[in-house]
Amino acid sequence: MKKTAFLLLVLLASLTAVAQGISFETGSWSELLAKAKDTGKPVFVDVFTTWCGPCKMMSKEIFPMESVGKVFNESFVSYQLDAEKGEGVELAKKYEIKAYPTYLFLKPDGTVFFRFLGSMPAESFLRQAQVALTEAKDPKTISDWDLEYPLHKTDTAFLKGYILKRDKIGISNVELLNEYMKLIPESEQKLAPTCDLLFKEYDNIKVGTLAFDYLLKNHEAIDQLNPKIVYSFLEGAIGNSVRDAARTKDESKLQTCVNALSTLPASKLSITSDNIYMDYYRATGNKDKYFQQMVQLCNNQLMKITVEASTKEKVQSTAFNLNEYAWQVYQNMASKDSLILAAKWSKRSLELAPGNYSFLDTQACLLYKLGNKKEAVAMEEKALALIEKSSADYGNYEKVLNRMKAGEKIWEK
Fold it and tell me: Where does 172-286 have alpha helices with state H?
């Protein structure tokens, strides 16, 4: 009897612990909206996939927290939606889900009034939830804004408010920004508030849009008002356009991206035209041109960077890139000339960042593939000596070392 009572207490305690986190509804989508209508609460939807690492982290670490459950259980009807199963497939299309996890906040009629995405600490997650609650009380819905838009197309105050409203629910504003930029005087275009509107469209602005052309034309003046933002933004927009060019295999668009990059000061950028070409050729599957461009980047630029003439960050990134490209050659190339060249890049990465066990491993693997077994084993032993024995890397590197000593093949291709 005592044992039974004890087991019941344990069961109740565990159920209480589970209930402390977010309580998610388990019915159908229509049942979810019906419950929201009955309770008068807005809907919170965690849109996830089974392969998404950040989604798993949020479900395992953040959603079960008592502080998180308290806010969400009191304020929302909550639901988890697998974007690749059942109703989730069509709903993900309907709500234009592009990344995971995405968090949707809906009115009981299914209208989105707020969204955000990504994994984050509980404090940040709860801050976003408070923003959502504020938006839920806004009497002017996005549908209201849509209806008013034809009547206020030339009203800059309206357009700005409309852009901000759409941004909160994750709708692209590229076309609206074009209209807005045409209407405001040039004296206002360089002001931080206007630039902030443009920067919010990081994922959508591309080469050739009015917003991009404006930022490109005025990058020096904008950099003074928004230091360290405009150049990374322009690089991102160029990257968006390169991916578009790759999807259609349009080399004229690719060249437009290269031309745009060439008008910007190299000292302010983290990429070069070689990076752009490499991204394009990798995306289009042209391995020969990809590796040709890689050789040009490494030999003409990265191998010439010195510790004395560079910042610590530049030296570290150069070492990382040389190691990465050397490893790609090791994995994908078989010719002796290519491997010798990659070994030079690898050696330089170690000169720039001595004592990095990952870089030592790359050098060891290249030497082994070139037939220099003795040197390869010695290098891999150096790498292994720098790793904690409890680390997963230790076991992996130890296996490689043992295969080297046994004269076995260590590469897949």
Answer: 174-183, 186-189, 192-199, 210-217, 219-225, 230-248, 251-262, 273-283
Per the structure, the count of domains in the chain is: 3
Mean pLDDT confidence for 185-204? 73
For the segment 90-110, the average pLDDT, to the nearest whole number, is 93
Residues 125, 151 share a domain: no
Positions marked catalytic: 52, 55
The sheet with strand 112-117 has its strands ordered as: 24-25, 77-82, 43-48, 102-106, 112-117
Provide the residue range defining the domain that includes 15: 2-138
Residue 291 lies in a domain: no
Tokens of 233: 């933004």
Enumerate long-range contacts of 80-83, CB under 8 Å, 24 or more apart. 80/24, 80/45, 80/46, 80/48, 81/29, 81/45, 81/46, 81/47, 81/48, 82/48, 82/49, 82/50, 83/47, 83/48, 83/49
Per-range mean pLDDT, top range of 128-137, 138-147, 196-205, 278-287? 278-287
Contact in structure between 351 and 339 (CB atoms under 8 Å)? no
pLDDT in tens, 230-240: 898 899 899 98
Percent of the chain with pLDDT over 90: 62
Domain at 366, CATH number: 1.25.40.10
Residue 290 belongs to a domain: no
Residue 389 phi, psi (nearest 5): -65, -25
Examine the fold and report which residue of 138, 160, 188 is the final residue of a domain before the chain moves on. 138
pLDDT of 190: 63
Query: Within a domain: residue 201?
Result: yes
Who has greater pLDDT, 325 or 164? Answer: 325
The pLDDT, as a whole number, for residue 18 is 47
Residue 355: which region, alpha, beta or left (left: phi > 0; alpha: psi -120 to 50)?
A: left
Assess whether 32 and 74 both reside in one domain.
Answer: yes
Return the CATH number at 78. Answer: 3.40.30.10
Strands 102-106 and 43-48: antiparallel
Final residue in a domain of this structure, among 285, 309, 343: 285
- Beta-bridged to residue 77, according to DSSP, are 43
| Residues 150, 269 share a domain | yes
Separation of CA 300 from chain center: 29
